[in-house]
Structures are given as structure tokens and as C-alpha cells.
Design brief:
Structural class: alpha+beta
Radius of gyration: 20 Å
Largest sheet: 5 strands, antiparallel
Order of helices and strands: HHEEHEHEEEEEH
Number of strands: 8
Number of helices: 5
Oligomer: single chain
Strand order of the largest sheet: 7-6-5-4-8
Shape: elongated
Distance between the termini: 44 Å
Length: 186
């Protein structure tokens, strides 16, 4: 990442300036800024804002955030004479991001994850409710379409990554994860 002096010389805002400028707008949209990366080596330079929210980000939300962020950044006076063009990218963290905080697990509710526990064991299951530092994980049990719920302290999880799924989960799994009401259709 470029230093503040490199950013000023390039006529670009600092990471801190971008966060301060956009934070309120993103919060009003139900999102929070997780990271800002400013790449001065790209041509043209690139400002990437990584945002997430409890309801996730769809393409319409990203487009609306991109428009408002662009307008706000265009009015930011970083170097009046430079007129440096840049590319603004608003994105979500993506599935490859490890789950590291309670809010990440809450946002992944209903998703399949692979967890590594502090004892070295590995579990695969579906994220259920997360509350008070405890994750309810829906895990397969014995036979087909049988599941149980395990409660795991978040501080006992050393690694957690969302898994890509190519087929839909069972209705029972989603019920146990709290994504469907009992008896409701998918």
C-alpha cells in the first residue's frame, strides 16, 4: 500500500480519508467498510472499498454505493491541480475471506463452512445462530438427511472458511440453521 505522501503526490485520498468520507453513507445503506486498498501502481490508480452488511451486498446495492461513493470522492480536495483519474471499485469480501469475528459468522448464517478447532479437529457444517461468543453449527449425523446442532465457542475455532456449494441444502438443514421456519417451503 502506498504511503500518505505517495498518495498526496498522486492526488489520491488516504485510506483514512476514504473511510471517514464514506463511512456514514455506507452505514445508512446498512453496510460497513471492512477495508480500503489504494493501489497507485495500477494504471489508472485503483481505490477498492471492501464492504459488508448483515444482509450481504447484491449488485444493486453495490451499484448504489458505487454511485454515492464516486460522487463523494469527486468532491474531496486532495490535490486541486492533479486531476488524477482513478478507478473506484466497491466489492464484498467474497467467500474466500476467513470468518474471524462474530459478525462474520452472523452474516454467514445458513452457509456451509469448514472449521478447524483448537484441538486440530476439522468440522464441516452449516452456520446457525451465533450469540454470546457461541456458534450453533448444524452437522450431518449418521445417515442421510439426519442432522444435529453442536454449540461451539468461537474462541475454540482457529480457522473458518465458507464452502462453495453446487447443490441446495436440505430444508431440514436450513430449519436447524434458522433460515426457514418449520414447515415452510424453500
Amino acid at each position: 500500500m502506498a504511503s500518505d505522501s505517495q498518495l498526496r503526490a498522486a492526488g489520491l485520498p488516504s485510506q483514512k480519508q476514504v473511510i471517514e468520507l464514506l463511512d456514514g453513507e455506507f452505514a445508512r445503506a446498512g453496510c460497513e467498510i471492512e477495508d480500503v486498498v489504494i493501489d497507485t501502481t495500477a494504471r489508472p490508480p485503483r481505490i477498492t472499498v471492501v464492504a459488508d452488511g448483515d444482509k450481504g451486498l447484491d449488485l444493486d446495492a453495490i451499484a448504489a454505493l458505487s454511485r454515492s461513493a464516486s460522487e463523494l470522492l469527486d468532491h474531496l480536495d486532495t490535490a486541486p491541480d492533479s486531476g488524477t483519474p482513478y478507478v473506484l471499485e466497491i466489492t464484498s469480501p467474497g467467500v474466500e475471506r476467513p470468518l474471524t469475528s462474530e459478525k462474520h459468522y452472523r452474516r454467514a448464517r445458513g452457509r456451509k463452512v469448514e472449521l478447524t478447532l483448537s484441538d486440530g479437529s476439522v468440522l464441516t457444517g452449516r452456520v446457525g445462530e451465533v450469540d454470546g461468543g457461541v456458534l450453533r453449527l448444524v452437522v450431518p449425523e449418521g445417515g442421510r438427511a439426519k442432522f444435529s446442532v453442536r454449540e461451539l465457542p468461537l474462541d475454540g475455532i482457529t480457522k473458518a472458511v465458507v464452502q462453495v456449494e453446487f447443490s441446495p441444502p436440505s430444508q431440514r438443514e436450513l430449519e436447524l440453521a434458522g433460515q426457514l421456519r418449520k414447515g415452510a417451503g424453500a
